[in-house]
Write a structure and sequence with these properties.
The complex is a heterodimer of chains A (784) and B (170). With 784 residues, chain A is an alpha+beta fold. In chain A, 28% of the residues lie in helices and 24% in strands. Chain A has three domains: 183 residues, Alpha-Beta Complex (Aldehyde Oxidoreductase, domain 3); 324 residues, 2-Layer Sandwich (Aldehyde Oxidoreductase, domain 4); 145 residues, Aldehyde Oxidoreductase, domain 4, CATH 3.30.365.10. In chain A, α15 packs across α16 and α17 packs across α18. The mean pLDDT of chain A is 97. Chain B has two domains: 75 residues, Ubiquitin-like (UB roll) (Roll), CATH 3.10.20.30; 75 residues, DNA polymerase, domain 1 (Orthogonal Bundle), CATH 1.10.150. In chain B, 33% of the residues lie in helices and 14% in strands. In chain B, β1 and β2 form a beta hairpin. The longest helix of chain B has 19 residues. Classes of the chains: A alpha+beta (784), B alpha+beta (170). At the A-B interface, α1 and α17 of A face α2, α3, α4 and α5 of B.
């Protein structure tokens, strides 16, 4: 027996996960585990160059290799009008290159063969002649005079500039800066990193030659949206496309976009008439699929002599790679970056952004992040710490002096966001108490006198998650709602289907708990299914911490809808007036006569066997939930570090994380999300980096160069919480999957900067590696 | 080439090219898909199996190198329907999320407990440091291995309790 089998599994219970059973036995169903009859394998040939014109492609030798069924080139795709595809940001992206390659790792050709080994052998026999072109690897390079034009195929494109975007009040902000007593500036680069789920991306396309139905198994966080995109790209009728997202081995944003491999495999299956499997290897994943960040940011914070923030001005240059393929809501060119005023009551702000093409992989995704809120949160929290250090005000005190106060909610920010709820001082106080802040500060002071390098970092982040409302937030016009369909069977057991898709977040448990709470059926009696577009109701998918805020709300609403019907059924069975019935989780009873009761299971049975005249049989429903607003999770993170003078090595001594994600449905799963997110934040702060040499070669193309934290480096985290429910969510929940990755990098770096501040060091860009710290110390004359 | 090995207690053989990796032999020839592929460079440990009781990364061994030897994969951990202590530990302590690294983590944990039945946090962290988990942050994996150690110790003291150790979800 599992220790929680007897529990009801309502909201707030840490029941053990239902999905564990198959994973513990090695019986998960990940994409690469599927073997279809007659299945072929595909290998993709990628460009070794970052920028080069294709002179010729010779596939003759490859086609003659054993087991080869077809070699697909861009020209073949072009014959079917599939050499290019639309991106999620209104641009186009090459599926297989026809004219030139624009980043190292770009898809050039594909081999379909009987076995994967044969496909890879033949791939190596394709001969391509390139004319190498000059390379651009940064926004600075992209805007330089005489920079090579990367998107020469785009009509009207004369340079490498993609977009200009702005938010806030320019004039008001200028005026506020004019009367500021002090302006603190921070220029920082949030480098390119990669979500790197442990399972790479892939698909199996199976297009039936008889019916024309395309069944595509795909590692997708958003199967319904992908189905619609596929219908638009390929021209196949949408009812003939079925996307099945099986068990997913982590996503973190990497599995949101449509990748060229999916399109090529589908086209190949259509042409050949057999299923085609394509699974990336790790290098392909790192060099070609959705990266994250790559923002060069400059922030100016205006303050008065009392340490009150007056205004914020931010400019960023965004490096979007060779195609503008950011996965983000259509109207937001720089995602939700304008949330950059963070947790602070800053009266006015102005934010501008410029996006640039470079010869790097496309597809800026939100690596465990709600559309660039991570970059925004990092900038404001680093800037606030630098300001506190420069002004000589305690970091915590400076934050408290400028926090949006609890009574100000709902709060309208200077850039137009309406924060739903928050109690920032409380989260800060809980964190400081848990840390023992006042004592610790004395300790830091004493140790610094002895010559030690040690510091404390804080970050009080605010997130913006759970998109939509659909009128403002859409993906290619699709409103960002989500859905839940609930069927209660005659025996009182239930099937819940959702438009979102778990990648490890524990949906099969959490969403069952919402039904358990709202409809009274024990969680263990509820089967949760996701990911099959032929059976699940339409939804926009799981990313940007939107599952609980949106699909969770839909689940609560559909449960309540069925509870209303169950009330009528119970009244019928009890021969009582509907209004006289009292609901207690799991049953209705007659007011004043608790012995006269009917359980939800009895009501469900009656829905199929004994119902009032005129009532439709069955106990089923579906709810599409379009949230009225985003939710705004927040928290305070505190980090203590020691820095080794001799080596520059940073040791994280403590990390306290206080999160407020509103009501917690399964606290165990919530804490698991936070611990995982903190680890990814730690990796980003200290280890993870995708960079490029001057020729555009990707450095960080495998797990020996792209460093992910193991158990050995990862600190132990001390978790705390406050609970401020969302006023507009039916359960008061806000979403938590990404808070820790959004909030923690700034806390880690702030601790290092606090430690180095006595030496006049004000910034080190991530990843904060020993060599950078060592060089910064040496530049200030600090030796062992 | 013909290879023969004992896998999860049963003799298995196949005819493979010399270049075939052990992980591909397990997954493709034997359909034991619980062993995963995460990186191809021996870095992530998703492909970890036990070779004669020791954890190895099956993406960096050829199937032919294992001829005549003994392999244990995740599918061989449970005893019939009963979950082994390491599996119960992972379930009870929420030591898994997406589940992709879990087979490797559990096998490393089991091998550790065999040579060190009472490991410290650092012992566990060192043992699993060749295995990457992107979801959990490792704290609950450490707890899971400790939980398993505790269960094993209790079983050693009172063998009759073993029957109560089934479970692990539904």
């Amino acid at each position: 027996m599992s220790s929680t089998m007897h529990m009801h599994g309502g909201i707030g219970e840490s029941i053990k996960r239902k999905e564990d059973a198959r994973f513990l036995r090695g019986k998960g169903n990940y994409l690469d585990d599927f073997v279809l009859p007659n299945m072929l394998h595909m290998a993709i040939l990628r460009s070794p160059h970052a920028h080069a014109r294709i002179k010729s492609i010779d596939t003759k030798a490859a086609s003659a290799k054993p087991g080869v069924i077809a070699v697909v080139t861009g020209d073949l795709m072009a014959q079917h009008k599939l050499a290019w595809m639309p991106t999620l940001s209104g641009d186009t992206q090459a599926v297989l290159a026809t004219d030139k390659v624009r980043f190292q790792g770009q898809e050039v050709a594909a081999v379909i063969a009987e076995t994967l080994y044969q496909a890879e052998d033949a791939r190596d026999a394709i001969e391509i002649e390139y004319d190498i072109l000059p390379v651009v690897t940064s926004p600075e390079g992209a805007k330089a005079a005489g920079a090579p034009l990367i998107r020469d195929e785009k009509e009207g494109q004369k340079d490498n500039h993609i977009y200009r975007w702005e938010s806030g009040d320019k004039t008001g902000t200028q005026a506020a800066f004019a009367r500021a007593d002090k302006v603190i500036r921070l220029h920082t680069f949030y480098p390119r990193c990669h979500p790197s789920p442990l399972e790479t991306c892939g698909c199996i396309a199976d297009v039936s030659g008889v019916t024309g139905k395309a069944t595509i198994y795909m590692t997708s966080q958003a199967p319904h949206a992908i189905r619609t995109v596929f219908a638009l790209v390929t021209g196949l009728p949408e009812q003939q496309i079925r996307i099945i997202s099986p068990d997913i081995g982590g996503g973190f944003g990497n599995k949101v976009p449509v990748y060229p491999g999916y399109v090529v495999a589908t086209a190949a299956s259509l042409l050949i008439g057999r299923p085609v499997k394509w699974v990336e290897d790790r290098t392909e994943n790192l060099i070609s699929t959705g990266f994250a960040r790559d923002y060069h940011m400059t922030g100016d914070l205006a303050v008065d002599k009392n340490g009150k923030m007056l205004a914020l001005r931010v400019h960023l240059d965004s490096d979007n790679g060779a195609f503008f393929a950011d996965a983000q809501p259509t109207k937001f060119k720089a995602g939700l970056f304008s949330i950059v005023t963070g947790s602070y009551d800053i009266p006015t702000a102005h934010v501008t952004a410029d996006g640039y093409y470079t010869n790097k992989a496309p597809g800026g995704v939100a690596y465990r992040c709600s559309f660039r809120v991570t970059e925004a949160s990092y900038l404001i929290e680093r800037l606030v710490t630098n300001a506190a250090l420069e002004l000589g005000i305690d970091q915590a005190e400076f934050r408290k002096r400028n926090f949006i106060q609890p009574e100000q909610f709902p709060y309208s920010s200077a850039t137009g966001w309406v924060y739903d709820s928050g109690d920032y001082p409380k989260a800060m106080d809980v964190a400081l108490k848990q840390l023992g802040y006042e004592e610790l500060k004395k300790d830091v002071e004493a140790r610094r006198k002895k010559g030690d390098i040690t510091g404390i970092g804080l970050a009080s982040f605010t997130e913006v998650v759970g998109a939509g409302h659909g009128a403002e937030f859409d993906i290619l016009g699709l409103r960002m709602f989500d859905s839940a369909e609930l069927r209660v069977h005659p025996t009182g057991k239930a099937l819940l289907r959702l438009g979102v898709k778990s990648q490890g977040q524990g949906h099969e448990t959490t969403f069952a708990q919402i039904v358990a709470e709202e409809l009274g059926i024990p969680a263990q009696d509820i089967l949760v299914e996701e990911g099959d577009t032929d059976t699940a109701p339409y939804g926009l998918g799981t990313y940007a911490s939107r599952s609980t805020p949106v699909a969770g709300a839909a689940t609560a609403m559909v449960s309540r809808q069925l509870r209303d019907k169950a009330r009528k059924l119970a009244a019928h069975l009890l021969e009582a007036d509907e209004e006289d019935l009292v609901w207690e989780r799991g049953k209705f009873y007659v007011k004043g006569s608790p012995e006269k009761s009917k359980t939800i299971q009895e009501a469900a049975f009656a829905a199929y066997t004994n119902l009032p005249e005129g009532m439709q049989p069955g106990l089923e429903g579906v709810h599409y939930y379009d949230p009225p607003n985003m939710t705004y999770p927040f928290g305070t993170y505190a980090v203590v570090v020691d820095v080794d003078k001799g080596t520059g090595q940073v040791k994280v001594k403590r990390m306290v994380a206080v999160d407020d994600c509103g009501v917690r449905i399964n606290p165990m799963i919530v804490e698991g999300q936070i611990q995982g997110g903190l680890t990814e934040g730690f990796g980003i702060a200290f280890m993870e980096l995708i960079t490029f040499d001057s020729e555009g070669n990707c450095i960080g193309s495998n797990f020996m160069d792209y460093l992910l934290p193991t158990a050995w480096e990862t600190p132990k985290f001390e978790i705390g919480q406050t609970v401020t429910p969302s006023p507009h969510h039916p359960l008061g929940a806000k979403g938590v999957g990404e808070s820790a990755t959004v909030g923690s990098p700034a806390a880690f770096v702030n601790a290092v900067i606090d430690a180095l501040s006595p030496y006049g060091i004000t910034n080190i860009d991530m990843p904060v590696t020993s060599d950078k710290v060592w060089a910064a110390l040496r530049s200030k004359g600090v030796t062992e | 080439m013909k290879v023969t090995m004992r896998v999860n207690g049963a003799e298995k053989s196949g005819d493979v090219e010399p270049r075939v990796l052990l992980v591909d032999f397990l997954r493709t020839n034997l359909l034991l898909t619980g062993t995963h592929i995460g990186c191809d460079t021996t870095s992530c440990g998703a492909c970890t199996v036990l070779l004669d009781g020791e954890p190895v990364k099956s993406c960096t061994l050829l199937a032919v190198q294992v001829d005549g030897r003994e392999i244990k994969t995740v599918e061989g951990i449970a005893q019939g329907n009963n979950l082994a202590p390491i599996q119960i530990g992972f379930h009870e302590e929420h030591g898994l999320q997406c589940g992709f690294c879990t087979p490797g983590m559990m096998l490393v944990g089991e091998a550790l407990l065999k040579r060190n039945p009472n490991p410290s946090d650092d012992d566990i962290r060192w043992a699993i440091s060749g295995n990457i988990c992107r979801c959990t942050g490792y704290m609950n994996i450490v707890k899971a291995v400790k939980h398993a150690a505790q269960l094993q110790a209790e079983t050693a003291k009172a063998p009759a309790k073993q029957a109560a150790m089934a479970g692990g979800g539904e």
